[in-house]
Design goal:
By secondary structure, the protein is α/β, with parallel strands linked by helices. Helix content is about 30%, strand content about 15%. Bound molecules: nicotinamide-adenine-dinucleotide and (2R)-2,3-dihydroxypropanoic acid. Nicotinamide-adenine-dinucleotide (NAD) binds next to helix 7. Keywords: NAD, Oxidoreductase.
Length: about 325
């Protein structure tokens, strides 16, 4: 039995009391469990820990530098933008993320958003709940134009685990798939620079990480390049999109709609341009694309496997 101390900084963002946490108990002798950790408490909670598990608690350079005993940070997510990876590398603190745990959940969420927007589900649901259908003089109320996906084009930015899984389902819907070339990355056959891809797509879906390069990747200029009836789907990270520019494009009608699962600040306590009630054809969900029970259980078991590998001196899902 190991004598390492572990700290779970934001367990309530992972477990709703519905998960089996025994894999974590097997790999670390002593866990300090916290439902949430506010920034003011982070350092104190890390002070005696050799292993920290964080979903969204930010671990910046200052915090990592002061956490003298820390040897391993396990990010309980694929996105690692809440941890200063460069600082961790310099300080010799290993960081591991969880890859591929949420693919079915995220893919179904991406298509839930695309399908809801193309079939105008929110508007038709409101028409029924407000009594508009009941008052109608014909059998079918069709006030909102419905479109088909078959024969249209889907653009994907970020062709990793999630981008590729979305592409497979897209093909089953009869969508043609175009892939954005990674700036500065190797040019590959069939991939297009973003600015060449944008005017060609009916739906653009984002699956790249949030990094210094992708922050603000989809701004006013990129939105202007898109078709007036195109849809933007963002289940990646809020900071990849200029939210003010997106709100304006939807209001002006220069973009057809958007399905957004992630915002630049979460929770959006200080408000967000995309939460204004007057924006048409916009669906915002509270960062839940990943959150099926099955995916959360896989995540816990993957975090445990990362810790076990680290203790055995092996690299597993290491990002720093
Ligand atoms: N909303 C959610 O619940 C949820 C769940 C899981 C993951 N995510 C987000 O989705 C992201 C992607 O997850 P994944 O599992 O597919 O990761 P991944 O690492 O398998 O794939 C990311 C891909 O993006 C590419 N990329 C990076 N920068 C790019 C750029 N500028 N242009 C084009 N491509 C670029 C990379 O080369 C890689 O192929 C995560 O980083 C995370 O932020 C969100
Ligand atoms: O990156 C991820 O795994 C999801 O956004 C959940 O945190």
């Amino acid at each position: 039995m190991t004598t390492l101390n572990g700290v779970l900084l934001d367990l309530a963002t992972i477990d709703q009391g519905d998960l089996d946490l025994s894999s974590l108990d097997r790999v670390c002798g002593h866990w300090q469990r916290h439902a949430y950790t506010e920034p003011v408490d982070t350092l104190e909670r890390l002070s005696h820990a050799q292993i920290a598990v964080t979903n969204k608690v930010a671990l910046d350079r200052q915090t990592l530098t002061a956490a003298n005993e820390l040897r391993l940070v396990c990010v309980a997510a694929t996105g690692t933008n809440n941890v200063d990876l460069e600082a961790a590398r310099e300080l010799g603190i290993a960081v591991a993320n969880v890859a591929r745990y949420a693919t079915p959940a995220v893919v179904q969420h991406v298509f839930a958003l695309i399908l809801a927007l193309t079939t105008r589900l929110p508007e038709y649901q409101r028409a029924v709940s407000s009594g508009a259908w009941q008052r109608h003089d014909r059998f079918c109320l069709m006030d909102y134009p419905i479109r088909e996906l078959a024969g249209r084009t889907l653009g994907i930015v970020g062709f990793g685990e999630l981008g590729q899984a979305v592409a497979r389902v897209a093909e089953a819907f009869g969508l043609q798939v175009l892939i954005a070339q990674r700036p500065g990355g190797p040019s590959r056959e069939g991939r297009l620079p973003l600015e060449a891809l944008l005017p060609q797509v009916d739906v653009l879906t984002l699956h790249c990480p949030l990094t210094d390069t992708t922050r603000g990747l989809i701004g006013a200029r990129e939105l202007d390049l898109m078709r007036r009836d195109a849809l933007l789907i963002n289940t990646a990270r809020g900071g990849i999109v200029d939210e003010q520019a997106l709100a304006e494009a939807l209001r002006r009608g220069t973009l057809g709609g958007a399905g957004i699962d992630v915002l630049s600040t979460e929770p959006p306590r200080g408000g967000n341009p995309l939460l204004a009630p007057d924006i048409p054809n916009l669906i915002v969900t509270p960062h839940i694309a990943w959150a099926s029970r099955e995916a959360r259980q896989r995540m816990v078991d993957e975090v445990a496997a990362n810790i076990e590998a680290f203790l055995a001196g092996k690299d597993r899902n290491r990002v720093a």
